[in-house]
Amino acid sequence: DSRTVPASVDVVVVGAGFSGMYLLHRLREMNLSAVVFEAGTDVGGTWYWNRYPGARVDVESLAYSYSFSEELEQEYEWQERYPTQPEILRYAQHVADRFDLRRDIFFRTRVTAAAYDDRDETWLVRTDHGDAVTARFLVMATGCLSHSKLPEIPGLDRFTGATYHTAHWPHDDVDFTGMRVGIIGTGSSGVQSIPVIAAQAAGVTVFQRTPAYSLPARNRRLRPDEIADMKANYRAFRKAQRESGFGVPTAPATKSALEVSDEERDAAFEVAWESGSLVNLLTAFTDLAVDQEANDTAKRFIHRKIHQIVEDPRTAADLCPEYPVGTKRPCLDTDYYETYNRENVHLVNLRRTPLVEVTEKGVRTSDKEYAFDAIVYATGFDAMTGALTNVDICGRGGVSLKETWRAGPRTYLGISSAGFPNMFMITGPGSPSVLSNMVVSIEQHVDWVADAIEYLDRHGITTIEPVQQAQDAWVDHVNLISGFTLYPKANSWYMGANVPGKPQVFMPYAGGVGEYRKKCDEVAAHGYEGFSLSPKSPASPA
Ligand code: NA7
């Protein structure tokens, strides 16, 4: 790369996933100078890194796509209902080409530190290549599930076979033919990759700490007529997405799961199960997310399905989760439960026999050692905060973000945090983000941030920062809403429960993307209510 990083820009954007790409486009349209730093060698973020076999999105392609360009919507041809990682990455690359984005993106470059200068009211951003860029605004477009984690057991580097993490999969195909493979973790990445790896490998042993609720995806190629329909109706569809709960339009439920007969309830769950849509399951009744007894009916339905599919009763029982449906991220799969009927697949329930260590040969649990040729870690992420707190971010007065968030993240609207002027987060903690169709949430945040910057420039304002009371009220509001739901009943990464020592607070806003958007729009319409806006300080140079 022969380009030099500019010394000073209006905006530094960290990350060239769906957020950073669209933000760069918006900033250019506003004639602002911007530079994007990206650790990977190309655009795509999540879809650049997570190349494991079977990786797919679980929101339908026609909905999991940008809405900002009607030309893009019309010209792009999605192939599958739930596209594979390569197909989504191709889409991201197409967008980068079409809007000439790579020109302002520095790849293979990781932002290591960002410090706010109180006097100059600018950010100084540093990279692992020794670059130092000054910017008026810093936007962390770093993703919610991007800082991966490994199991916290000894011996990880003792193993002499091949090791993989689903979120750092090699770019070349991995061939498991003839191999004995151990797979640790049964979240979405495990659930998607296990059937594909099992079809290739000589043997697969799955180490499960917590089972997932998974629905068959019923994936298929899209029909030309449904693509044409969507293309003809995109504007109305986008509007419905933005006003919905999960960023996916659905007919609202009208009945409690407890007011209908067993037959009617099972019929409704059956429709959701057959539909291959998680949102259809979660919204089949009005009270699944808030009432334990109602949720238990969904749980029993899925347990029954698992027992019908999985032949060995003990394996089936081990695959049945106990926490309420939807309180950990549910999964969409292709042949997940069926895979446990294969002779070459074996499930180890870590609740009975916990992981002890990784050895030279493989994995040791409390009762025995398993020998493998390869180990796959599908062990997830330090979600929502990991990518933010692992950059050395220092705000006003040199105060560190990591320290400030020691007892859990505190934001106003999930977009910014008191003490960190002119720093924005795309889909940060306190926003719906991971509880929604990500692309919908990303576009909303990017638009809000770009509009805010435009407003500040138009009004001669140099700094924007949440007022402490407004932030406290937002944090209370986010907690209040999750308190009405069953979400806090599960040990999920929504709660920080998967990372030892991480504070246990429910991080996303659970009130739905439609309600959330209304609140963000109101804040902007009222002159950025809850933010303190300051004109250029007399101390700063002209
Ligand atoms: P997830 O959903 O966080 O899944 C990680 C899995 O790994 C999960 O089953 C964990 O069990 C398990 N895990 C994590 N640490 C350990 C240790 N130390 N020992 C044993 N098992 C462990 O990550 P994914 O990559 O699958 O999916 C992330 C998101 O991507 C997904 O939700 C969708 O939004 C798309 P646990 O449940 O913590 O007991």
From TrEMBL:
Keyword flag Transport: no
Pfam families, alphabetized: Pyr_redox_3
InterPro entries for this protein: FAD-binding_Monooxygenases, FAD/NAD-bd_sf
Source taxon at top rank: Bacteria
UniProt KW keywords: FAD, Flavoprotein, Monooxygenase, NADP, Oxidoreductase
Listed cofactors: FAD
Molecular function terms, GO-annotated: oxidoreductase activity, acting on paired donors, with incorporation or reduction of molecular oxygen, NAD(P)H as one donor, and incorporation of one atom of oxygen
Protein family membership: Belongs to the FAD-binding monooxygenase family.
Protein name: Cyclohexanone monooxygenase
Organism: Planotetraspora silvatica
